[in-house]
Hints:
- Helices cover about 45% and strands about 10% of the residues.
- The protein has helices at about 5-25, 30-35, 40-45, 75-90, 105-110, 125, 130-140, 160-165, 225-230, 270-285, 300-305, 310-320, 325-340, 350-360, 365-370, 380-390, 395-405, 410-419; strands at about 60-65, 95, 115-120, 145-150, 180-185, 195-200, 215-220, 245-250, 255-260.
- The chain has a nine-stranded mixed β-sheet.
- Helix 11 crosses helix 12 (about 310-320) and helix 13 (about 325-340) packs antiparallel against helix 14 (about 350-360).
Amino acid sequence: MIPQTNKLKLLTAAGLVLLQCAMVHAQKTEADVRVVTDANRAAIEAAMPDALLVPAKQPRRILVLSRSMGFYHKATPLGKVFFENVQNTFEGYAFVLSDAPKDYTPENLKQYDALILNNGTGVHKLLTDVTTQKGLIQFVQDGGGIMCIHAASDGGWPEYNAMIGSRFAGHPWTAGGTHAFLNEQPAHGMTKQFGSAFPFKDEIYISRDYFDRETFRVLISMDLSDRETASKPGGKTRRHDMDYAVSHVRAFGEGRVFYTSFGHTDLAYFDNNVLTHYLAGIQYVAGDLEVEDTPIAFYDRLKAHDGPLYVEAKQKLVNMIRNADTPAKKQEVAALCTKLIKDRSATAASRQLAIESLSHFATAESLQVVAGVLADKSIQHVALLFISERADDKAFSEIAEEAWGKLDDTGKAAVITAM
């Protein structure tokens, strides 16, 4: 019989061997792990976009990094096949595939228009030289572009993660599930091929740090109106603002940044909509496709809130109300809600939200603000409810009398019922 202490030593040794094997496997190149089959190539070819979104303004050279220094994604070599197809099918784009750190020095990057980080984890463990790290950031700042696919956010150094707007914090939406997505920019050059809402099977990351909408323009997000999709985040994978971006862009200095969480599964590379999204991203970061990449301001998101669209703006307003513990903060919220209620370009959902939010700080002035929109059918019910609950009999009669001439028969009947 083996003594208990020896058993522990054996188990510990076995565990270390398994860990070392796992680390070696994690850092293997795609050539060691996966061979792309003819069937894989045929599926990618069948999903290829028919044409460039715009012609290349000049011949472009793009450097692609695919090496993983942590978990290896088996879809990574499919991305290489896609880049190869783009180069062979369309004019103007040449891709250089290299995982050698020496090719990412500031001097060497000068010959390229853009970089693509193709699904590789732990970029900070590969590009360890501080000069190289700073040079990569400066390359984009000076007018280059960077496109980051899926696991390119699983690792990095602070300046890199801040630039791309993501750092892996979990994947509550797993590869085996089909999840609901919201196309926030259906007329955008990088997303117009998708429907306004669509299902897709892929693993989607969240980033608890580095991402906020005041810096990035979100193109696609998780559709939280779908109960199953909304139920997934929890614990460390839950953002308090309920803002789960999937793809976003930004201008960075003179350069351009595109990050997308799509790309964990093979299906991403066999889907025409996703490959069109990738192609548009390549053209954008290379400097050929000009699209809107400025962040959408909080007020503009709030006034466009409708159902799942910009639900994060609704949540932000809710949080502002919860934290309004001083007269100045209360006044700030009241002013925001007043502006929204009066804004006839805002959605009915957002104006109703503003009236409901204003109820937390109801004053004689707020009664007059809501009374001013009593004739607006789209928000009449919630406006009348607000007034009937907060105005005394005299004030209610005065408001009703002033609004009477502007009301249709249905509105008048509603006022009489509320009296």
